[in-house]
Design brief:
It contains eleven helices and seven strands. It is an alpha/beta fold. It has two domains: 123 residues, 3-Layer(aba) Sandwich (Rossmann fold), CATH 3.40.50; 62 residues. Strand 6, helix 10 and strand 7 form a beta-alpha-beta unit. The protein starts with 6 loop residues before the first strand and ends with a helix. It binds magnesium ion (MG). Magnesium ion (MG) binds next to loops.
């Protein structure tokens, strides 16, 4: 049997929290008078990698979104709208709580400062993680090898000693290519089964 991993590296979006992008586009559409599909199209042209790399801060992001949608959103309004689509994955959070102290835990998320500011206080379990790597703070994004190497460095783990869970197959493949034990996250029940198979 495989040795259980020393560390678990977890994604955030669609793992610990859900993000209903259709709701986001509807809410922004209602505010701006644009059809949701038009909101989606205009925002798709923005390219969020700069914000995820931390090159664009909260005000820059607000200005970019305001400009793309042809409105001027106040900081308060932007914060509320930009985070309106998150819900906690209530089923999986107790399972993650149950891993604290049994295995090193790290979060590895491509995100921007506004989403990070909203979500961190709503996920107290993150305070019990050994490391929280947010792309906007680290300055690198998945699937680049550098951010996986940084996670391993902070955890003090060799690649094979770490299991990585993400809902995006592209990121799972990237981690596996570096020697981590990559797993596709789907549901809380499947996560249970995957943890069992890992000996956790
Ligand atoms: Mg995700």
């Amino acid at each position: 049997m495989n040795t259980p991993p020393r560390a678990l590296i977890l994604d955030l979006g669609n793992v610990l929290v859900f993000h209903d992008n259709a709701l986001l586009f509807r809410r922004l559409g209602a505010r701006t008078g644009l059809p949701p599909a038009e909101v989606e199209q205009r925002l798709a042209g923005e390219g969020w990698t700069a914000a995820n790399r931390g090159l664009v801060g909260a005000d820059g992001l607000r200005h970019d979104v305001s400009r793309a949608l042809g409105v001027e959103l106040s900081p308060e309004e932007f914060f509320e709208l930009w985070n309106c689509h998150f819900t906690l994955h209530e089923e999986v959070l107790p399972r993650v709580e149950g891993l604290v102290g049994r295995v090193k835990l790290a979060l590895l998320s491509n995100t921007n400062v506004v989403h990070a500011a909203y979500l961190r206080p709503r996920l107290p379990v993150l305070e019990r993680f050994d490391h929280v790597l947010l792309s906007c703070e680290v300055g690198q994004v998945k699937p680049e090898p550098a951010i996986f190497h940084e996670a391993l460095r902070r955890l003090g783990c060799a690649p094979r000693e770490a299991a990585f869970f993400d809902d995006l197959p592209e990121f799972v493949s990237a981690a596996s290519a570096l020697g981590l034990r990559g797993h596709l996250f789907t549901t809380a029940a499947a996560f249970d089964e995957q943890l069992r198979a890992l000996g956790l």
